[in-house]
């Protein structure tokens, strides 16, 4: 099967090349290309989570500085840049906003385990094709499952918070999220 | 040994989105340290987050924000790309998972247990936000009364083992149970079963421990 790799900003290969330039040559132009695309996205994400404006700006800078420092840890065979930055921003949110001081060191430990693993096993790179399939799968989710997935990720609501907000039994919240996750995972494992 | 009982899909999603209450997240992290399968599932979940991040509609950054970023970059010391540390997975059976260190220390042997009933000892974590976290040490060959759990609860075996209708649970395994599931764990003979348990509802949890143990141990 053939497919065209497009050059939209969603293209994982494009971002992976920018990251190599940041990591190997400390290239500021590449860094700013990443910044221009991702900083507004990260800020919108943090604002939606209820982080006040000045603090959100601060956390966005923090996330991008983490990228500048740790670009060498980025492994395009393991995750796309948007996935990687999502992790960085979520971790900073939990550390700064939810004030859980033990979260960051634990996540760094898990990252090192992941890194050791991807060296050991033959991982599939996350390509733009995978992202398109996942995107289609998200769009095809039944309305309630899509709503729960968004409340989970974009509002960072716990199962019990979702349950009381939607007046939906906790068991139903969990089973809907399970069904949604199973579908989305299948789309990521789709045969090529 | 590789764990055979894993985190529930709904728990993985909640962890990935940063919404899992604190105490449950500690136990989930402890399992993730020992379970490559769940780390892969977490990465799948993080991909959903990455994609939703990308999908948002936004305006380009302002010139002011761009120059502020470049100024921060200038003040960053020039350092070599970060070296990747060695595999941190360790196999010392006395060593608790890293995620538990802030709450219970490093060493299983050094734990200071408090007896709460014949054959049952406990240590409660203090100062954890978002739920309740405790270690339990249950004598070998104990049969716990039939019980179910209210709310969300996550238990990971650190040493020893137990069996219930869902199977055999050994070190590294997690029981990520729905509130409705009724079960009756029986700890294996030989060594005590040591586990870490978390819930998002502190009072309820103390409740189930008390309720579960009461008929057996009479307290």
Automatic annotation (TrEMBL), chain B:
Top-rank taxon, per record: Bacteria
Family annotation (Gene3D superfamilies): Anti-sigma factor, zinc-finger domain, Jelly Rolls
Domain ChrR-like cupin: start-end pairs: 108-198
InterPro entries: Anti-sigma_ChrR, Anti_sigma_zinc_sf, ChrR-like_cupin_dom, RmlC-like_jellyroll, RmlC_Cupin_sf
Protein name: Transcriptional regulator
UniProt source species: Luteibacter jiangsuensis
């Amino acid at each position: 099967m053939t497919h065209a790799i497009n050059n939209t900003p969603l293209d994982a290969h494009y971002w992976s090349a920018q990251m190599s330039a940041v990591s190997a040559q400390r290239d500021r132009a590449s860094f700013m290309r990443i910044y221009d695309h991702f900083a507004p996205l990260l800020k919108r994400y943090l604002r939606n989570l209820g982080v006040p404006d000045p603090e959100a700006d601060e956390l966005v800078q923090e996330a991008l500085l983490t990228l500048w420092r740790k670009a060498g840890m980025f492994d395009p065979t393991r995750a796309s840049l948007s996935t990687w930055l999502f992790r960085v921003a979520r971790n900073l949110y939990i550390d700064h906003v939810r004030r859980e001081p033990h979260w960051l060191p634990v996540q760094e430990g898990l990252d090192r385990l992941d890194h050791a693993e991807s060296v050991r096993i033959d991982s599939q790179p996350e390509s733009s094709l995978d992202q398109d399939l996942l995107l289609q799968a998200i769009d095809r989710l039944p309305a309630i499952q899509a709503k729960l997935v968004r409340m989970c990720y974009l509002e960072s609501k716990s199962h019990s918070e979702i349950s009381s907000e939607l007046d939906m039994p906790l068991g139903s919240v969990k089973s809907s999220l399970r069904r949604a996750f199973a579908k989305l995972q299948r789309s990521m494992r789709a045969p090529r | 040994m590789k764990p055979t009982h894993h985190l529930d899909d709904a728990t993985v999603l909640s962890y990935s989105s940063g919404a899992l209450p604190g105490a449950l997240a500690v136990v989930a992290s402890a399992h993730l340290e020992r379970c490559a399968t769940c780390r892969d599932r977490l990465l799948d979940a993080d991909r959903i987050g990455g994609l939703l991040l990308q999908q948002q509609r936004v305006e380009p950054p302002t010139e002011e924000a761009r120059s502020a970023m470049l100024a921060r970059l200038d003040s960053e010391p020039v350092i070599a790309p970060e070296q990747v540390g060695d595999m941190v997975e360790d196999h010392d059976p006395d060593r608790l998972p890293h995620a538990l260190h802030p709450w219970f220390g490093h060493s299983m042997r050094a734990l200071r247990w408090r007896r709460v009933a014949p054959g049952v000892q406990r240590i409660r974590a203090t100062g954890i936000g978002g739920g309740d976290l405790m270690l339990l040490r249950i004598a070998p060959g104990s049969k716990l009364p039939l019980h179910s759990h209210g709310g969300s609860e996550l238990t990971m075996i650190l040493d020893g083992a137990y069996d219930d209708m869902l199977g055999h649970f050994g070190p590294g395994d997690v029981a990520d149970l729905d509130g409705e599931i009724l079960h009756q764990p029986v700890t294996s003979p030989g060594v005590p079963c040591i586990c870490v348990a978390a819930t998002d509802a502190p009072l309820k949890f103390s409740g189930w421990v008390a309720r579960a143990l009461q008929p057996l141990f009479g307290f």
